[in-house]
Specification:
The structure holds 2 protein chains of 2 kinds. Chain A is mostly helical. Helices cover 65% and strands 0% of the residues of chain A. The chains are: A mainly alpha, B alpha+beta.
């Protein structure tokens, strides 16, 4: 699975000396169009073989790498140790419950409707609204399928957000198959 | 002057040796064992033509008094030529489509005023501004019907004409023809001979058919002067509901005279091809086809447990089945609302051995109830979707939206396909389990399609996600029942 491999690669990076610099670069890359910040390339390109003309896939990888770096710092700061990873949709639901926030729901819906131009920005916003560990492997998988005409990823995210109490693993398991 | 004898001329479409041909009444009866079945794309023709043949048989043959007489008849493999020919020879003259004094199922001396196109004999499917039986634009140039076509239309009309306004010959309205409302059940055997024997339910007194009575004339039907009890198979199966006279144009028929026929008087008589149910007040009513559902969903109403009655043809065939005869069931008829015909249907069902036993009936009943319960749950899911998509609106707007979703129609459409298999497997216990599985699949499939139908905007995904919980609850309840049972 692409997601797992990518996560392993990022974790591998994390364990090395150069992680401090890599992390800073990846975080800064979020200010630019995904894949459009050359300093970040050495950390992500190695995984992008055989992509051909699919520019969205490249962007997705860069985006997730940047978000990973963003949250990783926060997670490190919190020093949470072993924490269960949740999907972004579920994490947003938890945040909504905690803050009783309507605007959070609006942002979630806006995220679901995001087109190519909007997705990077809205995703960054959404990720910055949640706390705790996120399932970045799943996030990459989902992003890679974001523009599928059937919009199954968006449908699953909606189910996770609106039915989070009951779905949990079941929803994930279903999602993997689609 | 007499022309086109229905006993002899070809007008009944049948399948024989894999080919469709038209035969007369005599050929259909005498050589019924060589004919696979009456073959017509029109369900109402199928019903009316079988009834006509049966009406003749009830008088032509020695009476069938019970199961063993029927079995003896089946064993012979064909109808007794002698009895048939004897009877038909006697009434030969009453079966001409055109006749000076006794045209078949018609009135010879109608006033020849306000002629109508012959096509008015065929059910006019109501849609939007489509008129019912009578409209006032009679300047049409109706197509020429062959004698065979006209004869078939006549026979269909006399069985199926819906009651309603009829301002002719001193009457203002006319009553339903015998099959205008009820669903007609027809049992099908391996060939036409077998089919006819299977439907030849023993009857005390078959009554006297029109062709054995004095020919009707205008004075008999003016102001509904003649009223007969609606009883006796031979009479009812070929009942003169309306006064018709087809006008011969040499090569075919274009116009006809039209007016009231004999008025039926309801008495305590059960049509062997009709099923009965009990309504909340305890009245016995004939089972009808309905617009919204395929007939199988009403099987439950025929069950003894619900106070219903199976149609006599099915019970009779069931008894014969115990002795090794097999058959399928056809349900035929029209769906009507007052004088408007909304739909015409034919449904075919395999009838397994032992269906009409307490065990078979019990399993059928349970199966139907489970399907209805899941449908009820799905209606609530549709409601939730409506609420999710529309938000705060009044109940009727929400209901309209919910009704526009394909959820229930897809669910039932799938079960329409699955039901005959379930029916065919009764009364095996495994049949019910398999049926529950099919119900689950049908529900899932319908829900998937509904989700696609609603759309994938965030707003719609939100509504669907909310309703999803209700949907899963419906499936969970279904599984729970499975476990308990």
């Amino acid at each position: 699975m692409n997601g797992k491999k990518f996560l392993e690669h990022l974790r591998g990076l994390k364990s090395r000396q150069e992680w401090k610099r890599a992390r800073a670069v990846l975080r800064r890359s979020l200010a630019f169009n995904p894949g459009g910040y050359p300093p970040a390339m050495p950390y992500v390109e190695p995984l992008l073989q055989n992509l051909g003309d699919d520019t969205w896939r490249r962007e997705a990888y860069y985006l997730v790498a940047g978000l990973f770096a963003l949250k990783e710092k926060e997670q490190e700061m919190k020093d949470e140790g072993h924490q269960e990873v949740r999907t972004l949709a579920r994490a947003l639901w938890e945040a909504k419950q905690a803050r009783q926030s309507d605007s959070l729901e609006k942002r979630f819906l806006a995220l679901l409707d995001a087109d190519r131009d909007q997705i990077a920005h809205r995703l960054r916003q959404a990720v910055s609204l949640v706390e705790g560990a996120l399932d970045f492997a799943q996030l990459l998988e989902d992003l890679l399928r974001w523009f599928d005409p059937k919009r199954r990823v968006q449908a699953r995210w909606a189910r996770e957000f609106y039915g989070a109490q009951e779905f949990g693993q079941e929803a994930l398991a279903e999602g993997q198959g689609s | 002057m007499s022309k086109f004898n229905l006993l002899l001329e070809p007008w009944i479409p049948v399948l024989r040796n894999d080919k469709v041909e038209e035969v007369g009444v005599r050929e259909a009866l005498v050589n019924g064992h060589t004919i696979t079945r009456i073959e017509t794309p029109f369900p109402l023709e199928e019903a009316a033509l079988h009834r006509l043949l049966l009406a003749v048989l009830y008088r032509a043959l020695p009476p069938v008094k019970g199961k063993y007489d029927a079995l003896d008849l089946l064993d012979r493999g064909e109808f007794d030529r002698g009895s048939l020919e004897g009877y038909l020879d006697k009434y030969w003259d009453r079966f001409y489509l055109f006749h000076d004094t006794a045209p078949f199922l018609q009135i010879p001396d109608l006033p020849q005023r306000d002629l109508l196109p012959w096509s008015k004999l065929l059910p006019q499917l109501a849609n939007g501004n489509n008129p019912t039986l009578f409209d006032h634009t009679v300047d049409e140039n109706p197509p020429l019907a062959s004698y065979a076509e006209a004869a078939r239309a006549l026979v269909v009309h006399q069985s199926f004409a819906p009651g309603g306004l009829l301002r002719r010959l001193g009457v203002t309205s006319a009553k339903d023809a015998p099959l205008a409302r009820p669903a007609a059940f027809l049992v099908m055997g391996a060939n036409l001979f077998e089919t006819l024997v299977l439907n030849l339910v023993p009857q005390g007194d078959p009554g006297m058919p029109v062709w054995e009575r004095e020919p009707l004339r205008v004075k008999d039907v003016e102001k509904h002067a003649t009223k007969w009890s609606l009883s006796g198979v031979s009479l009812v199966y070929a009942w003169p509901s309306r006064g018709v006279r087809l006008v011969d144009e040499g090569q075919g028929v274009r116009w006809m005279d039209y007016g009231p026929g004999v008025e039926p008087q309801e008495v305590a008589w059960r049509d062997p091809m009709v099923a009965y149910r009990q309504d909340k007040k305890g009245s016995i009513l004939p089972l009808r086809l309905s617009m919204e559902k395929s007939f199988w969903r009403d099987f439950g109403a025929m069950l003894p447990a619900a106070g219903g009655t199976w149609p006599a043809v099915l019970v009779h065939a069931g008894e014969l089945e115990e002795e090794g005869v097999s058959f399928t069931l056809r349900v035929l008829g029209q769906v009507s609302d007052q004088a408007k015909i909304l739909d015409i249907r034919r449904e075919v069902y395999p009838i397994p051995k032992d269906l009409l036993t307490p065990k078979g009936e019990g399993l059928l009943d349970r199966g139907l109830k489970v399907a209805e319960e899941v449908a009820k749950g799905l209606r609530q899911v549709a409601w939730r979707v409506a609420q999710g998509v529309l938000g705060n609106r009044d109940a009727s707007e929400l209901q309209n939206f919910a009704n526009s979703l394909p959820l229930l129609s897809l669910y039932w459409a799938q079960l329409d396909l699955d039901f005959p298999d379930f029916l065919g497997r009764l009364p095996e216990q495994g049949a019910l389990d398999l049926w529950r599985e099919r119900i689950q699949k049908a529900a899932r499939g319908a829900w998937e399609e509904t989700r696609r139908f609603v759309g994938t905007d965030a707003r719609h995904l939100k509504a669907l996600a909310g309703a999803e919980r209700a949907f899963r609850a419906v499936l969970a309840e279904l599984r729970e029942k499975e476990v308990k049972a």
